[in-house]
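User: Structure tokens for both sequences below?

Assistant:
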Amino acid sequence: MWEEFMVSVQNISLYKTEERRILVTVTIPAGTPKNLTNAVITYVVNNADGTEFFRKEGADITIEDAVNGVFSFLLDGPVDFADIISTYVFPHYCVVIDFTSIMDTVFTGYLKVIVL
């Protein structure tokens, strides 16, 4: 089941040696925060061919403020991208399944990992 939802494009760049916490606020089109109480959140980074490179879910996602739709996850360059030997751009996306089993795509875009 889907509901009307505002999907944003989120392009991120980080160095392979960098660690960065990504903070996300989820809102519906009216601008109201989406309640994330008991939500299941999944962040996925794919290879260019569409196969999954890695995902973060469960304990990898921190609900910062459920009622106000805020969560975060850590991109840990040295761990998540240990096998990357040159700069690479990955498609990525994040989805939320709320307590009523409604699934929303929160964002899509590209993650650029820079190797010096």
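Moving on to the next sequence.
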Amino acid sequence: MGILKETKAANARTHAQRAYAELHKVFVYRFLLAKSQLRAMSAPVVSCAEVIEAVEGEGWTFRSLTTHDDAFVMIFYRNG
């Protein structure tokens, strides 16, 4: 995994761990899109899968994704 992907995944993981430790039932994560991704018609979103996998690895289940301005807003629910 590249440095950018590792950094984005590690950042998401840290916030997911904190939310889990604080006993939140919902975790909302804002994922900023690169300017080049905003103009692309169809293409992979760099690091998005790694972020989802990192958060799910901390005990969260991915439920939905929406867009807001230049970001994806991801909703996760606590397992169990």
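User: Anything stand out in the second?

Assistant: Strands lie at 26-32, 60-68, 71-78.
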